[in-house]
Write a structure and sequence with these properties.
mainly alpha
């Protein structure tokens, strides 16, 4: 079954499917201290659709350079891909905590 998204979720998923660094930036900018629970779910879902190497690279950038919430979502994304090495590096640098380092 094919889902049809509308509104902000469609905008985020379209950007994620493009997967360019600027698109990832746009998605990650939605993760603020004021982000609502639905917004964090939209971002999590959208990030799961990023599959271009340059988009994945940009998510790795946020693992080391983003805000705490951005680092957490970048870690979650990379853990789901099985990309343990950068997550371990971020953990060793104190950028994410143990719970986030092992979350999927």
């Amino acid at each position: 079954m094919k889902y049809r998204y509308t509104g902000l979720l469609k905008e985020l998923t379209d950007k994620a499917k493009n997967g360019n660094p600027a698109d990832v930036d746009y998605i990650m900018q939605k993760l603020t201290l004021d982000a609502t629970l639905p917004m964090t779910r939209y971002v999590d879902f959208a990030l799961s659709l990023v599959n271009k190497p340059e988009g994945i690279g940009r998510i790795k950038f946020y693992l080391f350079n983003g805000t705490l919430i951005q680092r957490n979502y970048a870690s979650l994304f990379l853990n789901r891909l099985g990309e343990w090495k950068p997550v371990k590096q971020a953990y060793d640098q104190g950028l994410i905590d143990e719970i986030q380092a092992y979350s999927r």
